[in-house]
Write a structure and sequence with these properties.
alpha+beta, twelve-stranded mixed β-sheet, 12 helices, 12 strands, 35% helix, signal, Lipoprotein, coiled coil
């Protein structure tokens, strides 16, 4: 059953992989516009960003059509919950700051506001005030400093500045998405939408909107192409020396993954899973729109997803409906950082944090 659910998840990842900044220098065919987008991303040096994800519906029907009390409480909190992230990024010197806001609903409605800052060598995460988790007042509101080099060494890997090379990561994304797009037929998966019909926010001015869509009619073919054609080529891209070092990936692991992916046993399992996919997955709606402005940048992206994942053997149905969006502005301009890099008394180290948590038992 896990393999069936994995196929369903792969269908969603297939569409999500298209979300990348950049676009064409002129009005292009939908598929070519997205391929140009991936290429343009390698020149990205700075931007402001606003993202939001809203869970419109999340229901679980168990074997008898009911759920236990704990599951019901969690579902109540997640239904209509939303996560938003506002951030600023620049490549040189590398600095990113963002504030994540999580709003949970239901009987235990609550909100979390978590600012974060990242440089080439450090990450800072502000400790939020959490009602049901009484944290020491000495650390609430402080920024926990995470040394990326130390974390890598503790994990048994050798830290390299290349691991946070955002421009190289953009280049990798360009190659992956270009390879992925090349495998899919434009008429079946891509559509040109008039900006006035795309329900864009008022402050988004677009010259072109491209829609990528997965439906019940094309999802089997899409997954077949992904597994048999695209993934082996993507593994080869990730195995290039410049990316392998950045991602800290072992060449032997990549070779094994490709071998297993292309084995007759795996192919047979995938074919069997796809043959029965309609028993496990229903796509009511899965659309990803990318709006491109006059400067050839995707200033807005919008995802609409409404699916049902079923487990006939257990009699369980999971219905999930969500919307997500990304909006970019001040592309390749000088950025203003409102948080800055935390310093002095505003910072606590991991050691100090662990000491504070260790002392909670004495309260």
């Amino acid at each position: 059953m896990n393999k069936k659910w994995g196929l369903s998840a792969s269908a969603l990842l297939l569409a999500a992989a298209i979300i990348l900044p950049g676009c064409a220098n002129k009005q292009e065919a939908p598929k070519e516009a997205l391929k140009s987008a991936a290429a343009k991303a390698t020149a990205l040096t700075s931007y402001e960003m606003k993202s939001k994800l809203v869970i419109n519906n999340l229901t679980v029907e168990a074997g008898e059509g009911t759920t236990d009390a704990t599951t019901g409480m969690v579902l109540s909190m997640l239904k209509n919950a939303d996560i938003s992230v506002n951030g600023v990024y620049q490549a040189d010197p590398m600095q990113t700051e963002m504030t994540m806001v999580l709003n949970l609903k239901g009987d235990m409605a609550m909100s979390f506001n978590i600012p974060m800052v990242m440089t080439a060598e450090k990450m800072y995460v502000k400790v939020p005030s959490i009602p049901f988790l009484p944290l020491p007042e000495t650390i609430v509101g402080k920024y926990v400093e995470l040394d990326l080099k130390e974390l890598a060494e503790q994990g048994g890997t050798e830290w390299s500045p290349a691991s946070v090379d955002t421009q190289k990561m953009q280049k990798l994304s360009n190659e992956v998405v270009s390879t992925l797009l090349a495998e899919y037929d434009e008429e079946k998966y891509f559509t040109e939408i008039k900006p006035k019909d795309a329900a864009l926010p008022e402050d988004v001015k677009a010259k072109q909107v491209v829609q990528f869509q997965v439906t019940n009619d094309n999802v089997k073919e899409a997954l077949t192409i992904l597994v048999n054609n695209a993934l082996p080529k993507i593994i080869d891209i990730v195995g290039k020396e410049e990316y392998k070092t950045m991602l800290q990936i072992d060449e032997a692991d990549l070779a094994k993954a490709k071998e297993e992916l292309q084995s007759s046993e795996t192919r047979a399992e995938v074919d069997k899973g796809l043959a029965d996919l309609n028993k496990y997955l229903t796509i009511n709606q899965f659309k990803l729109d990318t709006a491109i402005d006059k400067d050839s940048f995707p200033v807005y992206q919008n995802l609409l997803m409404d699916i049902i994942v079923k487990d006939p053997e257990q009699g369980t149905n999971v219905s999930l409906s969500l919307t997500g969006s990304n909006q970019y502005s001040k592309v390749n301009e000088k950025q203003t950082f409102t948080i800055g890099i935390p310093q002095g008394d505003d910072v606590v180290t991991m050691e100090e944090l662990q000491q504070q948590f260790g002392g909670m038992g004495t309260y």
